[in-house]
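Thread title: Can someone regenerate the structure for this chain?

I was given the following input by a collaborator and told the matching structure tokens would be attached. They weren't. Posting the sequence so someone can regenerate them.
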Amino acid sequence: MPKNTKVTQREHSNEPVTESVADLLSLEHPMDYKSSQMSMGLSPGSTAPVKALIPSPDPDAEDGRPAWNNKLEYILAQVGFSVGLGNVWRFPYLCQKNGGGAYLVPYFILLLLIGIPLFFLELAVGQRIRRGSIGVWNYVYPELGGIGVSSLMVCGFVGLYYNVIIGWSIFYFVQSFQYPLPWAECPFERNGSQAIMVPECEKSSATTYFWYRQTLNITSSIDDTGGLNWKMTLSLLVAWILVCLAVIKGIQSSGKVMYFSSLFPYVVLFCFLVRGLMLKGAVDGIAHMFTPKLEKMLEPQVWREAATQVFFALGLGFGGVIAFSSYNKRDNNCHFDAALVSTINFVTSILATLVVFAVLGFKANIMNEKCVVDNAEKILGFLSTGVLSKDLIPPHVNFSHLSTQDYTEMYGVIKTVKEDSFNQMGLDACLLEDELNKAVQGTGLAFIAFTEAMTHFPASPFWSVMFFFMLINLGLGSMIGTMTGITTPILDAFKIRKEILCVGCCIIAFLLGLLFVQRSGNYFVAMFDDYSAGLPLTVVVILENISVAWIYGTKRFMQDLEDMLGFRPYSFYYYMWRYVSPAILVVLIIATVIEMAISPAGYNAWVEAEGAERFHSYPPWALGMAYSLIVVAMLPLPIVFIVRHFNLISDGSNKLSVSYRKGMMKDISNLEEQDEQRFILGKNPSEAPSPMPAHRPYLGPGGTQEMTNTNYGTSTKTGYQNIGSPESEL
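Best answer:
Regenerated them for you:
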């Protein structure tokens, strides 16, 4: 390097070095803290990027980060991640439980108030900073860098048990290739010379028996592990192999998978909707679903559950949304993406609800007709024994073709005449409304209620194959987003081949997932579902909101969005991010804690002798395990804050990526060439105009004092302060 360059002059100078890395690269032209931009490539008050600061004409290509092949792949990835099993088996249940059509009102309101704004926020920060969850929040505010670690840990917890559900779906998918379906009828067992129905199945139902005994082979309590269930272990292994193959090449492989896994469920849902509407009783189910119970809207519980569903439906806080958006170009219209994906998610939930209640309406009619037949036989028995007089039976009633209306009329007459002894007769009212009011969700809906309804379909194996193949694809789309939320921040932090990382993660996850394929594994799935994600993710998202809206500043963030998108987002988002969304999240956290405090901690255990579920409280060790999931997921938040607040570890804000070092070397090389050229021409370098922006003092948060780094490697504690980081190459 020539000795007359400015760089070497600095090296041989005896003056103390007070500049940061960023100041050195900009020839000691610091930046005003108040007017600094999230893009770090904008001059104060300007609306266009300062291209002179970028050695490469394409900064997205310069940082070497992978990118989506096209916009469609990205949208399908976000849709596949947000639209999951919860849209099919959670949303319809909440609608049925919380007032039918009336539930859609609080859900839609909260979607506008917290869903879309926070989804937009995650898309924006991921796209601008181009890092995974850990890198993004380390960059925004290092002391809250634990946000990304907590997101990663929650992703790990959820991924462990979520893939078990995919394994269950794979098992049912394979079992569907036979006629009749194996859960269509109760099995028989030999008792001497006689063949009798299995008592456990007789006391429950064929589909319930197949789920609890043939599939899970479940124990009667969480204390009894029962050993590994080899069928479920093999299914889990297949599920992890599928996930590993989908994510092993990063977005290059997962993007291709999304073309099928995101679109195929919609084909199946539309097929089921058309077929369901042609079934007897489908209209009854849909009418029951959308009949609004307006009084339910006044109950706080309805709003809490609507907020929780909005929160998890969009995948907020998991890190998958940020990871996917980090592979976008910086000028991508993420505002449009947020509105589009949120709308698709909501419409999908409505579509799934229509399908579920069309099929459940058909099932309710089947079960109601069976109830009428069973109770008609009881009445005939009472008539033959003289308990009931034949005069009580209306003359137009024909027992060989007994309709629901005729039975209801006959039931009312008997109940009125035999008022004193009616309860001893054991007759049921057989009301269709009672069948429709039997709320089911989760595995109870997918593996019991829905499978039972499909046994009555013509060509039932075909519909069963389609249904469980749809569940596999829905789960796979969500798992790809979950795995991306885990692998992206690790790949950002460490130089490791993504293939090795993905295979290693899948192997470790499979081994840890053996907990869920024991005979008692279903109880642990329920535990992780209840405790591992709910409260930790809510805390993570409110800290995300606070770090951007209050620490970095909503006005500055809005200006950054204008620079990035080319237009200023609506002021609606300003008030949502700054006031409304944090307030709603605080209320949600308080409500969640109260709910956990007043609700008994336990699980529904399957009692073989009764052929039914019974609620059991968690034993002390299981209760400790449940609460430890919450503590472990949230522990990185205070730990990272403490160690960085007291400078126990570096926040990594001055670390330069390989691509940034290349850009720095280009700047230095260009500077040297200019100095040599001016020297040859006989001009003093100080007289030549500087290629860098004019001097701008770097002001601290107060905006009054210039901030300098007295130590070359020391970083300040202000949000978005790492000017020399790779994310600033904008």
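Strands lie at 188-191, 194-197, 602-607, 612-617.
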